[in-house]
């Protein structure tokens, strides 16, 4: 196997050993980014003490977002992502924003609605195409990630992303989450809660939060599994991709824009 | 055969004065790099919307000018124009020096310059950036070889001509790669246009020739060498044509975009309502960097006045910076059209013109790159027999 995921097998195992030895905090503080390889290590871990449903063969993880059910004044998904993954936006232009609420107003009709925008996990991601070191990569299950070990901070992916889905880390960061280490001078963005997927949660922080509000505007699932709720929903009701003209085949689809 | 004799530059007070000034700028840029490395890019004017700032303007100017500076050598060797032959060595040296200066700025503006080695062994061959790494390093190697064929004794003419041809083709590929960094960005309305590659090639002819002439003026100013009037006049005329070609490609670039309704917004922004970007486009690129120098260079006075030619070359360089500022930063300032047909707003600058106020740190880094290039060129002229001793007419 030549996927970047499998190259990182050794890193994953050593990280797990360190975690088991109770030195997790020191690991994160001394070498932010080291534990990032947890994202890709599912196959390495399969058959051990973790569920084996992370890199589900043939899966294409995605989201379906119903803008009609997304109130303009609700940002539960954004707050949940921020809390889950340890980034914070205080309104500065240099602050990260892995997921944001966008308000739309039809220029002709005046109709308004609101929806969250995050990494769209393209099948043909421009960020992966342009990345000189291959730090931007796509997993076999369609999740687009940044390997912060090999990101040199050139920001070409940010220039290339049609959705402004990525942020650059402008200043030193502290109090990082072990499931999503961040590093100054590197680029970051939505991971589709790959850590939750890999441990078998079957959902993402944003979808959980949206469901908890009762709005039920967001749905997570395997677009390639015809039995899944999301696959049935997109097969039954009209949904669209953002910038469909670019032909990127996105993992995130929207209804009622 | 070329009977010009070449000599190293001598140590003169002016030479040392220039070295000290350039060295101070390089040292300042080094300090800036350490400062930004420590505190992060938060101390620059860049943000999550304008991710490439003034350092990229300088870096890309130098890289584009590098390939253009090589043209002088090509005109002599490949196209057989004898007037250009005596300055072929300087052309090659300057091309390498400018490229190194530009690459230094580009690399030192990375979020993690310490990880540059990553880019050496983890290539992603679908990235034009990765291709450019090969094109840039290949350029340095090929031009060094070309310089060797010019300088070594007993090298047959055919070897020099072959190296010159290879270097010429390579430089066209290199600038195509640089233009395609923008041309292949499908996401942004201001880019995503195949014309970026030929536009950048035209820019390289113009900027490279202008920088070369300014370096000739600089070198003749600190030494006893002369800028032959016949060569200067020929170059001035050619530079005027290059400026016209840049204006032509710029006109086609914008007219093509205006014709497409979806690009009307970004064109209105750059050409009419973009504030600093509109000012830099019309005032900087078109007027100062285009029309005025063209009038000067095609005037009869240009044949007799070195000062006028130098002024025109300087204006072209300034116009070049303005053009790249508009392309690189103006292109990012205009919001991405993620939802065509909608007015959009968010907490992440959706639907608004993105703000950018460059800091002195960024200018310091960029100017440091220019100083490094000139310092390398001067050093080369000091230790190698680059400059013609009797560059006679």
Tell me the greatest interface. A-B, 56 and 49 residues
Main sheet properties of chain B: 2 strands, antiparallel
Q: Kindly report the CATH topology of chain A.
A: Alpha-Beta Plaits
Strand order of the largest sheet of chain A: 8-1-9
- For CATH, the homologous superfamily of chain B is named as Formate dehydrogenase/DMSO reductase domain
Overall number of domains of chain A: 1
Relative strand content of chain A: 15-25%
Q: How much is the radius of gyration of chain A in Å?
A: 18 Å
Question: What does this protein structure show overall?
Answer:
The complex is a heterodimer of chains A (257) and B (393). In chain A, helix 5 packs antiparallel against helix 9. In chain A, strand 2 and strand 3 form a beta hairpin. Chain A is built from ten helices and nine strands. With 257 residues, chain A is α+β, with helices and mostly antiparallel strands. The termini of chain A are far apart. Chain B is mainly α. Chain B has a single domain (6-336, 347-388), classed as Formate dehydrogenase/DMSO reductase fold. Helices cover 68% and strands 2% of the residues of chain B. Chain B contains 13 helices and three strands, in the order βααααααααααααβαβ. Chain B has helices spanning 13-39, 54-69, 71-77, 88-108, 118-121, 128-151, 157-183, 196-222, 229-259, 264-273, 276-298, 306-333, 360-383; strands at 6-7, 342-346, 387-388. The model of chain B has no long low-confidence stretch (mean pLDDT 94). At the A-B interface, strand 2, helix 6 and helix 7 of A face helix 6 and strand 2 of B. Strand 2 of chain A pairs antiparallel with strand 2 (342-346) of chain B, so a sheet runs across the interface.
Q: Could you give a quick summary of the protein structure above?
A:
The complex is a heterodimer of chains A (257) and B (393). By secondary structure, chain A is α+β, with helices and mostly antiparallel strands.
